[in-house]
């Protein structure tokens, strides 16, 4: 059973204030970090990058011959379903957010291996901090029991039939990640340990922090990245 990977790069990046996909990070565009790590993992027979329709030529110029660029949809979920169609010959489908540039080759390999055995694999971290719910005015309302709570990351991997059934049941509904679409089927999702450094670049502060990590040599792009 071969595996295909979709790197989702079709978001608006509005909260970050910059184009997260093409922003420079340690001398390379953010997107290239994920692409290099995925390629270095050796886990994928094919990689596609899902981009906004009007940015396909620009994104294709970044990825070169190492990935095929396809058009995404209006929502994250629509982009995932577009990737599912584009990777139709593979039994395992992994989906990764381009805004998580520090996922390691081993994490890509792990989710593919676990999904091959159990049907799904979603990396995450057990919540360690105190969690409180607040009202719209920012006043603390209650403390939430964090027992059993995880934060979810990507890459997430699934056996193709599971994602196909999730898409059929979704009927146009959007989800925050692909695991949510599978859980909506009342199917089990296998959680695996994620990585602390696999942060998501959401805000301008996140981008600045990621650049600081790269500049200090605390993170490094995978071997043999794409040509500049």
Task: Give a structural overview.
With 228 residues, the protein is of the alpha/beta class. The protein has a single domain (3-215), classed as Spore Coat Polysaccharide Biosynthesis Protein SpsA, Chain A, CATH 3.90.550.10. The chain is 32% helix and 23% strand. The protein has seven helices and twelve strands. It has helices spanning 30-41, 56-63, 76-86, 105-118, 160-170, 178-183, 204-215, and strands at residues 3-8, 24-25, 28-29, 46-51, 68-71, 92-97, 120-126, 131-134, 140-144, 150-152, 156-159, 191-193. Strands 1, 4, 5, 6, 7, 10, 11 and 12 form an eight-stranded mixed beta sheet that branches. Helix 1 packs across helix 4 (105-118). The mean pLDDT is 92.
What tags apply to this protein structure?
eight-stranded mixed sheet; 12 strands; alpha/beta; 23% strand; globular
CATH superfamily: Spore Coat Polysaccharide Biosynthesis Protein SpsA, Chain A
**What overall form do the CA principal axes indicate?**
globular
Our count of domains comes out at 1
The whole-number mean of residue pLDDT values reads: 92
Q: Secondary-structure element sequence?
A: EEEHEHEHEHEEEEEHHEH
| Percent in strands | 15-25%
What is the CATH third-level topology name? Spore Coat Polysaccharide Biosynthesis Protein SpsA, Chain A
Coarse structural class: alpha/beta
Major sheet summary line: 8 strands, mixed
Separation, N- and C-terminal Cα atoms? 33 Å
At the first level of CATH, the class is Alpha Beta
- Work out the helix count: 7
Low-confidence stretches: none
Helical amount among residues, as a percent range?
Answer: 25-40%
Could you give the count of β-strands?
12
- At CATH level 2, the architecture is Alpha-Beta Complex
């Amino acid at each position: 059973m071969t595996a295909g990977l979709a790197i989702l790069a079709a978001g608006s990046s509005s909260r970050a204030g910059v184009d997260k996909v093409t922003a420079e990070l340690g001398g390379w565009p953010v997107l290239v970090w994920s692409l290099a790590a995925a390629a270095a993992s050796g886990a994928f027979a094919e990689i596609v990058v899902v981009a906004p329709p009007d940015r396909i030529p620009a994104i294709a110029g970044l990825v070169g011959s190492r990935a095929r660029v396809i058009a995404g949809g209006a929502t994250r979920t629509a982009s995932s379903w577009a990737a599912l169609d584009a990777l139709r010959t593979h039994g395992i489908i992994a989906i990764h957010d381009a805004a998580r540039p520090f996922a390691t080759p081993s994490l890509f390999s792990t989710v593919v291996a676990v999904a091959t055995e159990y049907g799904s694999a979603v990396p995450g971290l057990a919540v360690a901090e105190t969690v409180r719910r607040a009202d719209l005015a920012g006043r603390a309302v209650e403390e939430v029991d964090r027992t059993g709570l995880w934060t979810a990351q990507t890459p997430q991997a699934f056996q193709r039939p599971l994602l196909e059934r999730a898409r059929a049941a979704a009927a146009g509904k959007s989800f925050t990640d692909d695991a949510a679409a599978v859980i909506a089927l009342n199917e089990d999702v296998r959680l695996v340990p994620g990585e602390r450094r696999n942060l998501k670049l959401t805000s301008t502060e996140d981008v600045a922090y990621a650049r600081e990590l790269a500049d200090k040599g605390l993170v490094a792009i995978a071997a043999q990245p794409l040509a500049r």
